[in-house]
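Exercise 7b. Backbone tokens:
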């Protein structure tokens, strides 16, 4: 059998395996809502660029760059606050409200006449997205409780993101053949409205709230506390920095490399992004099978490590074909890191804490991008693309070594650990595990725990504030 035919059969088989998760009705609706939301966001990106050019002309790049920076600042700063607000509301209606708010905000873009109005709407729109995305992502493992099914969902989600980056510009181009760019905003609004309708049909599992009372600051930083106290998630943060280093190089400097370096065309720029997306999609399609061969730690560390030689090769590439191959490799490597991340987050928190931990990942990973965007952009302008590529490659090596050191080999879920004797109280009901070890008092009120050494699946919480030493 020819190699190309064998590859086509294997990819089709992987896709069939992945799509089987859509048999779950609630997840199917959530996934459809995600696809429509992504399509709407992609159309907005194209329309926003055209709007910026209409208002600012040659300075459109400055306007878009500022809008992108504001987006990252909002993501980093507002997502934990939004998650805290979400705890006070039913998840379904929180998500629907944010979809409706985004739909309404997008309708205001065609009426913009000043650049500052773009910035104001971007901040409001991205604030809604900063609230929507982590809560949406944290809801999926509550619906798909089986880890194998959740792995398929992660791969499908990554595939949706990659397809959006490829298909949204094409769809926008078709629409612009007979509509004005302002009409794209209407398409976006329809996408968000359809997403809200689909979320309305989802039955969200009831997740118990079992958190200790504390100050607003303690509750606000709970997700980051759990995240940074968990070794595997500290490793994930280091790997997120590696992904942002390579991704920023691709997003910021592809157009410079292709058009200024090689004298290419805008179409070739688009093809370069397509090569990056194709690499990412290939790994996303193969992930369920890859995780049967390799544990998450090995796969993610390998993917991140391969970014370093890929970045080094950028300075040696002397044509579009070689560069496209490098972009394909970087897309595959970043996907090997990003797609399994949800498995780590799911494993590292109780269901009631997952939204906080997903929000922490959302904020901290975007903080990495906030740093690396200007490094890749300004660094490329100041010292040249080959030099900044080498500098980014060195940073990747450093953070991969750091990730390997802080993320324990083996990383078992069940850990033996010791509890000191403690007396405390809870504002509401506690888990059966907690009640079993409470003495001298009401386990839902003031009570005491005896000193104890035992084993169970370990996550950071109020009774396990420190990771046990191996």
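Sequence design result:
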């Amino acid at each position: 059998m020819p190699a190309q035919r064998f590859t086509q059969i294997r990819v089709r088989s992987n896709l069939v395996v992945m799509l089987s998760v859509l048999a779950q009705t609630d997840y199917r609706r959530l996934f459809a809502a995600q696809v429509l939301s992504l399509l709407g966001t992609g159309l907005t990106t194209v329309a926003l660029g055209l709007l910026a050019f209409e208002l600012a002309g040659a300075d459109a790049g400055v306007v878009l760059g500022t809008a992108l920076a504001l987006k990252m600042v909002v993501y980093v700063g507002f997502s934990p606050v939004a998650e805290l607000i979400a705890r006070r509301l039913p998840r379904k209606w929180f998500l629907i409200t944010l979809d409706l708010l985004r739909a309404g905000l997008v309708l205001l873009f065609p009426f913009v006449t000043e650049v500052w109005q773009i910035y104001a709407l971007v901040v409001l729109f991205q604030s809604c997205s900063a609230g929507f995305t982590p809560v949406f992502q944290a809801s999926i493992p509550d619906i798909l409780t089986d880890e194998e099914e959740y792995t398929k969902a992660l791969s499908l989600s990554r595939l949706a993101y990659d397809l959006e980056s490829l298909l949204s510009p094409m769809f926008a181009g078709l629409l612009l053949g007979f509509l004005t760019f302002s009409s794209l905003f209407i398409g976006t609004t329809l996408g968000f409205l359809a997403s809200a309708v689909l979320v309305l049909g989802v039955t969200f599992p009831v997740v118990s709230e079992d958190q200790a009372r504390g100050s607003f600051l303690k509750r606000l930083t709970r997700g980051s506390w759990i995240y940074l106290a968990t070794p595997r998630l500290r490793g994930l943060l280091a790997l997120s920095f590696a992904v942002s280093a390579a991704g920023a190089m691709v997003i910021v400097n592809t157009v410079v490399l292709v058009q200024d370096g090689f004298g290419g065309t805008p179409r070739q720029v688009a093809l370069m992004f397509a090569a990056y997306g194709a690499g990412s999609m290939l790994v996303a399609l193969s992930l369920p099978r890859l995780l049967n061969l390799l544990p998450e730690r090995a796969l993610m560390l390998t993917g991140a490590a391969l970014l370093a030689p890929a970045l080094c090769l950028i300075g040696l590439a002397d044509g579009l074909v070689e560069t496209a191959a490098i972009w394909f490799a970087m897309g595959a490597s970043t996907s090997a890191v990003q797609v399994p991340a949800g498995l780590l987050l799911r494993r590292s928190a109780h269901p009631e804490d997952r939204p906080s931990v997903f929000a922490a990942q959302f904020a901290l990973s975007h903080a990495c991008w906030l740093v690396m965007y200007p490094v890749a952009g300004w660094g490329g302008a100041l010292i040249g693309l080959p030099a900044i590529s080498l500098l980014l490659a060195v940073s990747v090596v450093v953070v991969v070594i750091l990730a390997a050191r802080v993320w324990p080999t083996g990383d078992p879920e069940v850990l033996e650990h010791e509890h000191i004797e403690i007396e405390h109280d809870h504002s509401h009901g506690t888990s059966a595990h907690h009640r079993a070890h409470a003495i001298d008092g009401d386990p839902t009120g003031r009570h005491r725990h005896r000193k104890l050494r035992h084993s169970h699946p370990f996550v950071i919480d109020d009774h396990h504030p420190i990771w046990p030493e191996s």
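Instructor comment: Strands lie at 414-419, 422-424, 438-439, 447-449, 452-457. Residues 1-11 have pLDDT under 50 and may be disordered.
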